[in-house]
Amino acid sequence: MTLVYQSTRDENNKVTASQAILQGLATDGGLFTPLSTPEVTLDFDQLKDASYQEVAKLVLSAFLDDFTEEELDYCITNAYDDKFDTAAIAPVVKLKNHYNLELFHGSTIAFKDMALSILPYLLTTSAKKQGVDNKIVILTATSGDTGKAAMAGFADVPGTEIIVFYPKDGVSKIQELQMTTQTGANTHVIAIDGNFDDAQSAVKVAFGDKMLKEVSDQHHVFLSSANSINVGRLIPQIVYYFHSYFELVRNKEIEMGDQVNFCVPSGNFGNCLAGWFAKNMGLPVNKFITASNKNNILTDFFTTGKYDANREFFKTNAPAMDILVSSNLERLVWYMSGKDGDKVKEYMEKLKADGIYEVDDETFARIQDQFKAGYLNEEEVLKTIKDCYEDNGYVLDTHTACGYGVLKQYQKETGDQTNTILLSTASPYKFPESVYKALFNEELDVYDAIEKLNEKTGVAVPKPLVGIKDREVLHKTHIDKTEIINFIKSEMEGL
Predict the structure, then answer these.
(1) Contact by Cβ (8 Å): 92, 419
(2) pLDDT 10s per residue in the chain (495 long)?
(3) What's the rounded Cα separation, in Å, for the pair 83 and 52?
(4) Residues annotated as catalytic (active site), given as ranges
(5) Could you tell me where the beta strands, DSSP code E, fall in 55-159?
(6) CA pair distance 241, 271, nearest whole angstrom
(7) Residues near 314 by Cβ (< 8 Å), separated by ≥ 6?
C-alpha cells in the first residue's frame, strides 16, 4: 500500500511521496507529513556492516514507496559520494561523556549537506514521475547553512532555478561568503533587510499567492522549496540517526536494542523531528534533548506548552538558530494532537494573528514525555567551547556548543546516564571568529581566525574553505523584506 502524505491543516489534502516532494508546501499552508510511520526490521546481523548508503536505502525505501528501487539507487549514489571528505559520510566520535555525530563533512561543512545533497535528485525524479516538464524554481529562506547547501546541490541542475533569501546582517561572514561566491548560472542569492523569520514567512506566502500562481502558469514555472518544510528534505535526515546507532553497536559501545538519547541543536526543528521519526520506525530512543541559543522559544514551548513569538529577537553567535517561527514544530504538534488538522490550523492561525498559541494539556503531556529542552546564552556558548576543548581536546562550533552545554545541564539535573549522541551540526571553521575568541580570548577577523585556529588547534581547515578569501563575489542583490514576493514575480517573468 502506498504511503499517504497529508497536510497538517486539511485531512482531505492527501498526496503521494513524490507529489509531496514536488509541491514542497501544501496549498492550504500546511506541511505534508506521512499519515503513518513505516516500521523497518532492524536486523543487526544484516546491518552491522551497512554503509551509510545502505542505511539510506533502508530508510528512504520505507518512506518514498512510490519510487522504484532503481530511482532510489540513482538518488543515493549521486548524493553520498566523494563530495563528502570521509567514506563514513557521518562519523561518530567518542568524547568523555557522550558521542558526537559529525554531520559537517559535506561540501558546505554543515549538517544541511546530509539532506540537500540528495534533494535535487529526489526533486527532479519526482518531477519526471509526475510528468512535470516545467522549469522548477526552488524558493529557499536561510539562516545561513541551508542556502549554501541548497545552491551547491542545485547548481547547474538542468531545468531548475534556485532563489535564496538570507538576512543581510543575520549570518556569519563565512556563511555569507559561501553563498555570495556560489557559481552556477541558475543560482540567485538575495540579501534582505529583515530576519530569517521574515524570509521564511514570505516563502510560505509565495506558495499560496494567487498572483504568483498566475505568473508561474503563464511562464511554465513550477514552484518548490528546499527548506525543511519540504518532506524530501526532512526524510533523508532520518538516516543518520539509524547510522549513528549502528555505529555504536558496531563499536561495541552499546548492545542492539539498548536505548540512547539524542541531543539536537535546534532552530527550525527539522533535525530533531527527523530523530522522532526514527524512533517511531523502531529506533530505541529514550529522550530527545532540544538545545537552543538565546532565542529560546523552543525551550519555553517544551517547558510550558505555550509557543510565544512575542519576544525580542536576538542576533547571536549561533546564527543558524536565530529563529522565532520554528516551522517543523507544526508537524510534531499535528502528530501529538492526534493528527487533528482543524486544531493545528487553529493554532497556526493564532500564531499568525497574535504571535502565540498554547497546546491542550493532553497534547503537551505527550510532547513532554519524549522531549526535554534547554538553552545557552552567548557567553555560555563561548565558555562551553573552551570547556569542551580543555576536557576533550575537541573543537566545537557555536551551535554544537549549545547542544553540549544543554546536555551537561540535563545530565546534572536528571542524573540520566543513558548513552547520548550529540548531533554536531557544523565545522568550527563555519564560525571561526567566535570559536577562536572562545578558545584564546582574542578577537580576529574571519581570515586570521581561520589561520590561527588551524595553527593553534591542529584541526584541518576544510577543503571547501581553502581559498575562499580570493573568490569573486557573484551575488550582490539586496532588497527589503517587503519586496520578496514582487522579486520572485520579476524573476519568474524573466525566465
Answers:
(1) no
(2) 689 999 999 999 999 999 999 999 998 999 999 999 998 888 877 887 899 999 999 999 999 999 999 999 999 999 999 999 999 999 999 999 999 999 999 999 999 999 999 999 999 999 999 999 899 999 999 988 888 999 999 999 999 999 999 999 899 999 999 999 999 999 999 999 999 999 999 999 999 899 999 999 999 999 999 988 899 999 999 999 999 999 999 999 999 999 999 999 999 999 999 999 999 999 999 999 999 999 999 999 999 999 999 999 999 999 999 999 999 999 999 999 999 999 999 999 999 999 999 999 999 999 999 999 999 999 999 999 999 999 999 999 999 999 999 999 999 999 999 999 999 999 999 999 999 999 999 999 999 999 999 999 999 999 999 999 999 999 999 999 999 999 999 999 988
(3) 14
(4) 112
(5) 92-94, 99-102, 135-141
(6) 10
(7) 293, 294, 295, 322
- The neighbouring-strand residues paired with 190 are 165, 477
- Cell 529514550 found at: 286
Fold of 92-110+234-464: Rossmann fold (3.40.50)
String of DSSP letters for 326-363: -TTHHHHHHHHTTS-HHHHHHHHHHHHHHSEEE--HHH
C-alpha cell at 89: 559520510
DSSP state of 185: T
How far apart, in whole angstroms, are the C-alpha atoms of residue 170 and residue 316? Answer: 8
- Determine the residue type at 249: V
Q: Say which residue the cell 531548475 belongs to.
A: 160
Q: Which residues of 320-344 are buried (b: 16+ CB within 10 A; e: fewer)?
A: bbbbbbbbbbbbbbbbbbeebbebb
**What's the rounded Cα separation, in Å, for the pair 286 and 263?**
11
Which H or E element spans position 308? Answer: strand 306-308
Contact indicator for 254, 260 with CB cutoff of 8 Å = yes
Q: For residues 430 and 172, is the Cβ–Cβ distance under 8 A?
A: yes
CA 376 to chain centre: 20
CA distances from 405 to 65, 265, 343, 418 (A): 39, 10, 35, 16
**Helices assigned H by DSSP within 136-195:** 145-154, 173-180
Which pTM does this prediction carry? 0.95
Give me the residue spans of the domains in the chain: 92-110+234-464
Q: DSSP alpha helices (H): ranges in 101-225?
A: 112-116, 119-129, 145-154, 173-180, 196-208, 210-218
